[in-house]
């Protein structure tokens, strides 16, 4: 995405968040942090929320504006003449919450005059749709994980902040990774599953890469396990490392600061958040539970 378009998206999302909060000042933020499905009750005069099973999603699959997760149906498409927000439930609540807020983002952008006018700056329909989708994704992300909550938790360069954000929000682990990555100046966030396989790798510039080697991340896990052996429960480990990358006709060594923290799933299964910050240096440190 072009830098100018991303700035437009950020500005659009701030307006969307302000609009949603001012529309329901007592409930919107509370719903997002505790039970996003509460939106169905609190917004029912304006929109109808429908939670359906994936197998029943035949109509939405045929609509060009929809994906497998949800759909924002316009009044001319519904019997009651209201907007309908369709959430195709996948059985994983954080994903369904994100979908609901994404579709609410479509509703806001299609009904508020200022948001509608701002979308007219794009030269063609494809660019307008891409920007609208990006705004809906960022709106859902920021609604579930507000800036204020992240600031309250602590330094977003530390992996323990990601694990705490996951436990204190209604967002999924991948959504947390992408939210934190977007705050970094230069670097990325990786999630490894309990088998040390790649689940997510999200970069600061908003792209995702799954084909790069996991050498840096696996070294981080090894060093974490080494430190953990002498501790009752290690919550975070931070150290300086490097990786080599081929850039045009030259090979460059990048010095990075690496922070790793476990995200528990049950008593034995552990996901790992690994935050790689380029351009930052620090001594090795650890945080014990």
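Sequence proposed for the structure above (289 residues):
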């Amino acid at each position: 995405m072009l830098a100018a378009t991303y700035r437009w998206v950020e500005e659009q999302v701030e307006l969307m968040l302000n609009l949603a909060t001012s529309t329901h000042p007592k409930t919107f933020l509370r719903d997002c942090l505790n039970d996003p499905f509460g939106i169905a009750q609190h917004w029912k005069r304006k929109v109808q929320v429908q939670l359906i099973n994936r197998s029943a999603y035949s109509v939405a699959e045929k609509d060009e504006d929809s994906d497998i997760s949800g759909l924002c149906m316009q009044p001319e498409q519904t019997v009651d003449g209201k907007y309908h927000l369709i959430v195709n439930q996948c059985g994983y609540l954080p994903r369904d919450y994100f979908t609901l807020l994404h579709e609410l983002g479509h509703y806001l952008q299609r009904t508020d005059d200022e948001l509608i006018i701002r979308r007219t700056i794009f030269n063609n329909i494809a660019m307008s749709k891409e920007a609208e989708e990006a705004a809906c994704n960022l709106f859902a992300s920021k609604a579930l994980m507000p800036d204020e909550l992240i600031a309250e938790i602590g330094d977003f360069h530390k992996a323990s902040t990601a694990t705490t954000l996951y436990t204190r929000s209604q967002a999924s682990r991948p959504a947390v990774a992408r939210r934190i990555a977007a705050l970094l100046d230069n670097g990325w966030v990786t999630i490894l599953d309990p088998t040390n396989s790649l689940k997510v790798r999200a970069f600061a510039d908003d792209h995702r890469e799954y084909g790069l080697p996991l050498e840096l991340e696996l070294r981080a896990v090894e060093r974490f396990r080494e430190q953990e052996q002498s501790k009752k429960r290690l919550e975070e480990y931070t150290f300086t490392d490097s990786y080599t990358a081929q850039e045009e006709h030259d090979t460059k060594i990048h010095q990075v600061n690496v922070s790793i923290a476990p995200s528990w799933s049950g008593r034995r299964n552990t996901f790992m958040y690994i935050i790689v910050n380029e351009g930052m240096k620090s001594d090795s440190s650890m945080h014990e539970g």
